[in-house]
Amino acid sequence: MPITLLCITSFHKGFDFLREAKRQGARVILLTSKSLEHAEWPNESIDDIYYIPDVDKEWNMNDVMSGVSFMARTAHFDKIVALDDFDVEKAAALREHLRIPGMGDTTARHFRDKLAMRTKASHAGIPVPPFVPILNYDKIRAFLASVQPPYVLKPRLQAGAIGIRKIHHEQELWDALDTLGDKQSFYLLEKYVPGDIYHVDSIIYKKDILFSMACKYGRPPMEVAHEGRVFSTRTVLRESPDDETLKALNRLTLQKFGLVEGVSHTEFIRSDSEGRFYFLETSARVGGAHIADLIEAATGLNLWAEWAKIECSTENDYTVHRQRLDYAGLMISLAKQEWPELSGYNDQEVVWRLNKKNHAGLIFRSPNHARVEELLNSYTNRFYSDFFASVPPREKATE
Which one of 44, 287, 312, 337 has the fewest beta carbons within 10 angstroms of its own beta carbon? Predict the structure, then answer.
């Protein structure tokens, strides 16, 4: 009897997961936002689609619980899969309610709530920047007295750099908290650590990391979001000290946080002043901003498809097949042109061009790490000249 997957996403994504799940013989049911009712989905790979009323992708969990419980009267769900970061808690709550195996509420917190992440990492001996919850004011005052500014005020349940605010002095913090009012407990305060930011993307099966790849962002995502920059990332030199340190920290993080199987995107920062790596955040999903396309260009592995294979595995027989060992770079920028012309970027290493309105993007790969760095530096300068545009930072996810 085929396995039935209930796939949840409040955003228009996860197409390769849906296609691969259907190729694996699964019955695929998609639960998504009503605002995406007319979006282009891979309908040939979806058995049924159900919609939840939403405002700016926000769902009422009573609607979700009632709707899925009603569906369960006639459908048996073997697994529930959250295809987006913002749906991890929804999926966990549904598993708890329907008593379906998989990540529950407590573990899900470690992959969504930045305060839960830092507390768990700190207790596990994983280095984290100094932080304090926005809860008890005496503890906040003690933190401000012992940790020098600047700081970053971070929403606990947003993704990436969304909603993060840099704080330069104490009064600026109290003013910000007054503005937040009753919402301030959903934030934490952290020491701002200048440095380079890295990410490690992984495939996990039966608690073992079967694949991981370390990459380095060009500019920190917060700087890209708040100051307007070209977004870029590229693979780290394999077996270099940075590569080995990052993969070891990533392994420790995922083991301590309790991710049993699936995929993960985890970020670390290397302090400019200390040269030490600190944990920033992790997730139980595929990295955004076309990072999955970067990984596929470098290795031949599609993380969405591999994740679907894991979810559909019923014989404990999932393996990662041999991958290509190239290096790759990714660049994306908002563009001042409606449809930017990328044909002039015609080096033989270019393997992917972004086709999206008011965006310019490229992926390039080479067996030579130095060649990827060379292209990244050259193309970044050209992107600023040819395409670059910026908009005010987002306070919440919109796509």
Answer: 44
